[in-house]
Amino acid sequence: MVTRRELLLGAGAAAVAGGGGIWAHRSRRGSMEAYNAAVAAMRRRPALAPQTLDLIRYASLAANGHNTQPWLFRPDGDGITILADLQRRTPMVDPDDHHLYVSLGCAAENLALAAGAAGRAGAMSFDPVGDGSVRFHYGTGKGGDQALFEAIPRRQSTRADYDGSGVEAGDLRQLRAAASVPGVALILVSERPAMARLRDLILAANAAQMGDPAFVAELKRWLRFSPNAALRRGDGLFSAASGQPPLPESLGPWLFDRVFTVKAETARYARQIASAAGIAVFAGAEADPAHWVQVGRACQRFALQATALGLSCSFLNQPVEVPEFRADLAALVGLPGRRPDIVLRFGRGTPLPFSARRPLAAVIL
């Protein structure tokens, strides 16, 4: 979702990998086989109805900015409270914690769907004056959308080229219906001229971000280059999850500094937008944490419905993250005066390796 930046390795990285230099360090970087097995175990559905720990695991599989997983869960007999983990903020890309609260909303929606599948369908509330927590109160009986629940372990931000095909009108209606959440507007853009105008804005905002050394330094801290590092940390943006070869941790930062360029990023994002079927823009009715949580819920439901339909998604949040581009984005999608919250491309793509998650012991209070 909420933003996960691609690692640009490009032809230079492929040449290093092909020459055998990277693979000589396999023992230090770990194997993708072991990584994929470990991540699959994190996403495996329980054999029985989900219990409390299973509900939290489902919630933790939600989309979130930079894969920081900025949440903590406090279960009790009546429900589960989701709190912001402020130690995992990203103040350069998200100075007002907008993405953090959107991430909490994504987790809350997964939790609600999982609880409904477990026969504990309940209600959600947000505390705007206390600690800014999201509270899920258990109910009784089944509830929610079973197809969305079943899509939770399969959803991912697929940061690769799609096949360029369109999405049928019936599928677009299902996406729109799934993302219908009070206080959230959704604009679907699937006509090529309008997508091209959005592309130009996204590329301009991306160039502005890349010109900010503080943004780049923060992004670099959340990059994970090897399977071992991605599993050990359980968070961050793993290069293989963007379709790039895994690298030894000693080599990854060095190569990143040399290939992360405006020209290469511009070409990659332009190609990925051209290959998409459409772009979804979400905007809350107000620019405050309560509505950002609602945006997260809508965004997560959209992504889960896309997964259920065999579609892929990934985030293009640059014009949301750079303040001077927000008004232009709002005007382009017909929402003047509103603050756009999430930009998401969708289409048909081949799944990539999943991102890791932190162990439950690290996120439960």
TrEMBL record:
GO terms of molecular function: oxidoreductase activity
Record keywords, A-Z: Membrane
Superkingdom to which the source organism belongs: Bacteria
InterPro entries for the chain: Nitroreductase-like, TAT_signal
This protein's name: Nitroreductase family protein
Organism placement in taxonomy: Bacteria, Bacillati, Cyanobacteriota, Cyanophyceae, Synechococcales
